[in-house]
């Protein structure tokens, strides 16, 4: 269901609860200040509210979890945090316009929206880039950004959280984890999952040393004598040289 009511100078709109299957709504270029008429329209996927007189959308849009396109540009929205909080539940939101609102003049406005609304792909008519997502992560979650930088190809790189990312050396020397005496090899693996370590890196190191081994051996069979040659020889035959390689 589609409803178009644009450029009519509307200041208020009656409840649209009777149109519960409404999916597309154009109500831009009016003078609307209140959005309570949308309280029952859960199926909306595209909503065009640009060029109105909205000052606050708190409590008016958060139930619209199916929204994919939302135009709110050229209104009077002032509070960036409250506006973004209202949109956080819209996991399908891909296109969002907030420009020409007072909140858009915040110095970190764009990165703030990108970080807290990660599903948005097109913000203010401009595609969100991977570099912008990384910058937003560094700005609003530096600890997670540092962890993400220390991960490569599915495993932790040799970069501790206490060092600067990109440094070739660790500030702390490598050390062996301290384990109680009396634990043999058969019980070592069970001990790892039973006793907590003070340092998580100790647990990782101990776990790495107890992984199953894969072993490959090769022998040059051209040097092995036949049954007849072994019977004719009086002296004991020297054992063949075997090359063994182990992978952990």
Automatic annotation (TrEMBL):
Gene responsible for this protein: Lrrc72
SUPFAM superfamilies, per the entry: Outer arm dynein light chain 1
InterPro entries assigned: Leu-rich_rpt, LRC72, LRR_dom_sf
Gene source species: Phainopepla nitens
Entry coiled-coil feature ranges: none
Protein name: LRC72 protein
Highest taxon of source: Eukaryota
PANTHER family: LEUCINE-RICH REPEAT-CONTAINING PROTEIN 72 (PTHR46759)
């Amino acid at each position: 269901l589609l409803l178009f009511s644009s450029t009519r100078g509307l200041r208020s709109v009656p409840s649209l609860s009777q149109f519960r299957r409404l999916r597309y709504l154009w109500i831009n270029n009016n003078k609307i200040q209140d959005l309570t008429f949308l309280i029952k329209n859960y199926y909306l996927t595209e909503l065009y509210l640009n060029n109105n007189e909205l000052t606050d959308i708190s409590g008016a849009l958060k139930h619209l979890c199916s929204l994919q396109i939302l135009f709110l540009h050229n209104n009077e929205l002032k509070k960036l945090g409250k506006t973004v909080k209202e949109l956080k539940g819209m996991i399908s939101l891909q296109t969002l316009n907030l420009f020409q609102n007072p909140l858009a003049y915040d110095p970190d406005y764009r990165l703030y929206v990108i970080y807290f609304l990660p599903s948005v792909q097109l913000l203010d008519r401009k595609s969100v880039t991977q570099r912008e997502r990384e910058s937003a992560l560094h700005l609003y979650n530096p600890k997670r950004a540092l962890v993400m930088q220390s991960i490569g190809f599915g495993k932790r790189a040799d970069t501790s959280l206490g060092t600067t990312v990109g440094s070739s050396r660790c500030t702390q020397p490598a050390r062996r984890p301290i384990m109680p005496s009396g634990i043999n090899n058969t019980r070592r693996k069970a001990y790892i999952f039973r006793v907590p370590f003070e340092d998580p890196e100790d647990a990782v190191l101990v776990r790495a040393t107890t992984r199953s081994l894969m072993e490959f051996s090769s022998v040059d069979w051209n040097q092995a004598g036949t049954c007849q040659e072994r019977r004719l020889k009086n002296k004991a035959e020297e054992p063949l040289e075997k090359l063994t390689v182990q992978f952990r």
